[in-house]
Write a structure and sequence with these properties.
The protein is an alpha/beta fold. Helices cover about 35% and strands about 20% of the residues. The strands form 2 sheets. Strands 1-4-3-2-5-6 form a 6-stranded parallel beta sheet, sandwiched between helices. It has a 3-stranded antiparallel beta sheet with strand order 7-8-9, with helices on one face. α6 crosses α7 and α8 runs antiparallel to α9. Pantoate (PAF) binds next to β2 and α6.
């Protein structure tokens, strides 16, 4: 196990990157690293190659948390995170503090996430995606990677990041990685550590609903009804269950689709999603 170079400041990051003039792949995280992040780091290594460099960023970004959300209690586990980075062969870790990322008192120019930024997660968290896209842009520009790897667990985030680099001509290749699940089906997330043992069976209803929905893919209504059957449950406060296109287009009836759910279990808000394959569009026989 080789320790990664740990850069806490931007000048240390530039120095570490200048020493590695090669293919690079970045994994952006807010720390509290788990099996899902390990999968992202392994994909980053495959993309960068044995001679390339894998960069992991660890930063709990205040800009993407709304008032009353869990910014203050979000888990911060830097020592354990650095051990995981070393085990996974990360070359450079960038772990800045807030003053490194936002040196001015406030950020004046931010990225507008557009219409999709106001739907699904954006309805419950209206400033969230502007905060995400702004920090992702800053981290892309600071690390200048060949590839940037993001999990499908945050499917709307991944979709918006893809959209942003396309719409704004940003020269980075965005790569999505399938969600890692615990043996019982729960999607791995840093926020799972907020769940009590008693809440876990309730939290599991999200992945059960998605699996049931994906298995009932003969038509759109059947998918939603099969999913909803798991969600009418005391202790589960459902925000949405929606079936959309692969780019999160509304009203999909045919072909590849995505089923997404968000719900609160106690004070913990959880999200999950799966791919669904609806029947192909009937052939036009005219
Ligand atoms: O997915 C996350 O952990 C965060 O939203 C990200 C992409 C690191 C931006 O802060």
């Amino acid at each position: 196990v080789n320790d990664a170079v740990v850069a806490r400041r931007r000048d240390e990051l530039s120095e570490a990157l200048a020493a590695r003039d090669t293919t690079t792949a970045v994994v952006m995280t807010m720390g509290a690293l788990h099996a899902g992040h390990r999968a992202l780091i392994r994909s980053a290594r495959e993309l960068a190659g044995a001679d390339g460099a894998v960069i992991t960023t660890i930063f709990v970004n205040p800009l993407q948390f709304g008032v009353g959300e869990d910014f203050d209690r979000y888990p911060r586990t830097l020592a354990a995170d650095l051990d995981i980075c070393a085990e996974e062969g990360v070359d450079v870790v960038f772990a800045p503090d807030v003053t490194q990322m936002y040196p001015d008192e406030s950020t004046h120019v931010t990225i507008d996430a557009g219409p999709l930024g106001r739907e699904l997660e954006g309805k419950a968290r209206p400033t969230h995606f502007a905060g995400v896209l702004t920090v992702v842009t800053k981290l892309l520009n600071l690390t200048v990677p060949t590839y940037a790897v993001f999990g499908e667990k945050d499917y709307q985030q991944l979709t918006l990041i893809r959209r942003m680099v396309t719409d704004l001509e940003m020269p980075y290749e965005i790569v999505g990685v399938p969600t890692v699940r615990d043996a019982d089906g729960l999607a791995v997330s840093s926020r799972n550590r907020y769940l009590t043992a008693a809440q876990r069976p309730t939290a599991l209803l999200l992945s059960k609903a998605l699996r049931a929905g994906a298995a009932a893919a003969h038509n759109r209504d059947a998918v939603l009804a099969a999913g909803q059957a798991f969600l009418d449950h005391p202790g589960l406060d459902v925000d949405y269950l929606e079936l959309r296109g692969p780019g999160l287009e509304p009203n999909v009836d045919h072909g590849p689709a995505r089923l997404l759910v968000a719900a609160r279990v106690g004070a913990t808000r959880l999200i999950d999603n799966v791919a669904v394959e609806l029947p192909a569009r009937p052939m036009d026989t005219r």
